[in-house]
Amino acid sequence: MKELTLKQLAILRFIKEFAETMEMAPTVAEAAEHFRIKESTMFAHLLSLQKKGCITRTEKARTLKIVPEKFPSAGKFSDKKSATHDNHGKKSVAPIAKAQSFVAS
Question: Is residue 26 part of a domain?
Answer without folding.
Answer: yes
